[in-house]
Amino acid sequence: ILVINAMTGIIIGLCLALVILVVATTNLAVGVLATLIIALITCSVLGVINMIGWKLGPLESLNLTLVVGLAVDYVVHLAEGYMELKHETSEAKVKHTLSHVGISVLSGACTTLGASIFLLAAKILFFFQFGIFIFCTIGFSIMYSLFFFPTVMALVGPEGEKGSVMPAIRWVRDAVRGKTKQDKDCELCKGKGFYKKEMNDVLSTNASSSV
User: Fold this and answer.
1) What are the record keywords, sorted (predicted)?
2) Is residue 167 part of a domain?
3) Residue pair 137/119 in contact by the 8 Å Cβ criterion
4) Residue-number span of the structural domain to which 22 is assigned
């Protein structure tokens, strides 16, 4: 039961992380790649637990559900930084991300690692195991987020509008407003912000008549 609960918590956490990453970056490809990085971090922590020889008890099961939440914090900043440049190559985006966001991510990770070191000296089992979990999670997060994730993004990261969810969002917005492809946008128009094709034909006819 504990194994099932732990795996269920991890899967739910990864699904929520995917949704949050896609919303934060407005790009499906970046969100999926970032979620895969979080999954790798989680698998690495599970591997450490197996190497140490811990059995999956209530404390371990509880800590495992926190791994995804701790791991998502670093990769989401790098993913969002990657999406700041819209019309650059993937390599240029990675350089921009590491130069502007990388140092902040590294600094935040170092402070969390420093805090977890004090937990390693705890006499209470829960705090000791919690310190191990935090130290391993943050350590793997630094490795995967600052080294593996930028490499993957430089190689296969989306460029331009590839993978963007904005076209789908605009399509849903237009469908709700009742706008079709033939309708014209109009910033000065009151109400829906566009006018119908029939109105465009009338305006064109009136303009021709006045000439």
Assistant:
1) Glycoprotein, Membrane, Transmembrane, Transmembrane helix
2) no
3) no
4) 1-156
